[in-house]
Amino acid sequence: MKKAFTILSMVIFGGMLVYNCEPDPDSLGEQLFLDGAAAGNEVAYDVIAYNINNNDSIRSDAAKLGLATLGAFNEDQFGMQKASYYTQLRLAAYDPDFGTNAVVDSVVLVIKPTYASDSLTTTTDESYVYPDGAIAAKKVVNTYRATKYGRAKANGGNLTVKVQEVTDFLNGYSDIAYSNKDYAVNLNASEQLGSKTFNGSVNSIAITKDSDNSSLFSSEAGFRIPLKPEFFQTKIINKKGQPELKDVASFIRYFRGLKISVEENDGYLVQFSPSSVELIMYYKSDKVENGTTTRPQTKYAFSIGNGNAHIGNYQYNRAGSAAGTALPPNTTTGDAKLFAQGMGGNSIGIKFSPTEIEKLRKLYNDNKAGIVSAKIRMYTDDVAWNNKYKKPTLLTIVQKDKDTDGKETTKFTNDLLLLSATPNFAYMRAYNLDKNPAYYDFTVTQSLKEIVEDVEKKDYSNKYFKIDMGNFLQSSTGNTLAGYQFTSRPFSTDRAVFIGSADPSNTKKIQLRVTYGTK
Q1: What is the mean pLDDT of residues 79-86?
Q2: What is the rounded distance in angstroms from the CA atom of residue 174 to the CA atom of residue 218?
Q3: β-strand 201-209 against 215-227: which pairing, if any?
Q4: Please, is 158 exposed, middle or buried when counting C-beta atoms within 10 Å of its C-beta (0-12, 13-18, 19+)?
Q5: Burial 205-217 (b: 16+ CB within 10 A, else e)
Q6: What's the pLDDT score for residue 40?
Q7: 3-class secondary structure for 392-447?
Q8: Residue 380 and residue 437 in contact, taking contact as beta carbons nearer than 8 Å
Q9: Phi/psi at 493 (nearest 5 deg)?
Q10: Per residue in 263-284, pLDDT tens?
Q11: Cα–Cα distance between 499 and 143 in angstroms, integer?
Q12: Counting beta carbons within 10 angstroms of the beta carbon of residue 62, is it exposed (0 to 12), middle (13 to 18) or buried (19 or more)?
């Protein structure tokens, strides 16, 4: 098993490539075609495909949150999705000494959305005056377009980002949290810590002194939100020497965290790494040298990254949306349209039709047919999903089994576990992503062979496959996959509408495509 996972981790991402041609048969069984020993046939078989309702909830704690998501997006197929972010913060060192007569100048929260590095524009101000000391300087601002999903030009491309103090305890870094849980915040408008309009771009800043070109200020590309200095004066500086600042446990129960959210209910989603968030407090205190008192500015950076609770909060309104009306699912004959969405939205379930399995078993037993390749082919809906939103490039597939007691187990498909070393193997391939429709092939060769060639002809009605947005994540060592349960689904912004199995006349309906050879 360890060897299989090691091999899998090396090939899995290379296998997730986009092709614009028909796939070749899997190498498994290709000897049937060699030297004219067999004739190859590809036949389509029906499957039962249906929507899986995840109740718009998913684990979104620090262990699952590879990226934090912020924003709101509303469209007809999936309805409204709104993403906020909770985080704890800690002191850089406990029982801090801020000096004598310390007064906060300013506080800034910095988030660093992902951005397109090739979108750089530069603005230079040769006559800039640095405010602290009125120093003649040069200011260079590099601007990049943030990576967005949704209506990038909604509201003029602007989102109103607000920061609030959390009043509920967020628990610890390793504690489980779910995306649909709201944590209480200070709702007093006068107590809101900060707000700023995000115009869809991030900036890096470099300020240098004219006299000697030394650096006065620099920042990486990000979005800087000014927070209220008076809040941090009262909450932090004035608590010098008090028990609230003495240790970690006391502090995270005293200052319980921050919530970052947007005012709007439509627009776009942006993402950033929780470990890259910064909270910086600038303050001045007395400094006495040679009988002279000065008040230099000190920069104090709170610890926000590792070790703190990070939680994604996702709100949905499905009223009137196509995804909302598609539920409850039809698990007997399948649904006409399939809705898949990351961040706790719908998954897709796929079962083999018992009737079709019997056809394949008869073909295997009577004609000595050998399955060379088996793929589930799924098309995007060329009407319902005819838009400018990017087609998803990464999806996952796992195998689900129920025992007689109804207990469900989940695991990698046997194709992933057993066939990963096969040349050109990929558990999923995407095609025509720049066209309408796109389609996706999921390899289920080994899984199907085990059912068809089972001499005991066991009942496989409780076996099904589950498809989700996102990709499998690697372990911390980078040498293996972390496990079937570790995927980017908790923070994947992707969604798409696919053609299901309910309409027998639809030529693009989801189907099992089997290539087999006979002597």
Answers
A1: 98
A2: 34
A3: antiparallel
A4: middle
A5: eebbeeeeeeebe
A6: 66
A7: CCCEEEEEEEECCCCCEEEEECHHHHHCCCCCCCCCEEEECCCCCCCEEEEECHHH
A8: yes
A9: -85, -5
A10: 999 999 999 999 999 999 999 9
A11: 41
A12: buried
> Contact, 202 vs 83, CB < 8 A?
no
Task: Report which secondary-structure segment, H or E, holds 253.
Answer: helix 248-254
pLDDT digit string, tens, across residues 98-128: 999 999 999 999 999 999 999 999 999 999 9
pTM of the model: 0.89
| Unique residue bearing structure tokens 């006391």 | 250
Tokens at 137, concatenated: 């300087």
Distance CA 395, CA 467 (A): 7
Q: Tell me the two tokens of residue 338.
A: 């399939």
Q: How far apart are CA 330 and CA 326, in angstroms?
A: 9
Determine what percent of the chain falls in helix, strand and coil, rounding each to the nearest 5. Answer: 15, 40, 40
87 vs 110: CA distance, rounded Å: 13
* Sequence letter at residue 268: Y
CA nearest to 448, candidates 366, 369, 360: 360
Residue 386: which H helix or E strand, with range? none
Question: Got the DSSP string for 85-135?
Answer: EEE--B-SSSS----EEEEEEEEEEEE-B-B-GGG-EEEEEEEEEETTTTE
Helix (H), strand (E), coil (C) string for 302-355 = EECCCCCCEEEEEEEECCCCHHHHCCCCCCCCCCCEEEEECCCCCEEEEEECHH
- Bridge-partner residues for 185, per DSSP? 166
| pLDDT tens digits, one per residue of 393-445 | 999 999 999 877 778 899 999 999 887 777 788 999 999 999 999 999 999 99
Look up residue 481 and give its DSSP letter.
Answer: B
Backbone angles phi, psi at 460, to 5 degrees: -110, 20
Cβ burial of 404 (10 Å; 0-12, 13-18, 19+) is exposed
* Degrees to nearest 5, angle at CA 105 with 101 and 108: 135
CB under 8 Å to 254, separation ≥6 — which residues? Answer: 244, 245
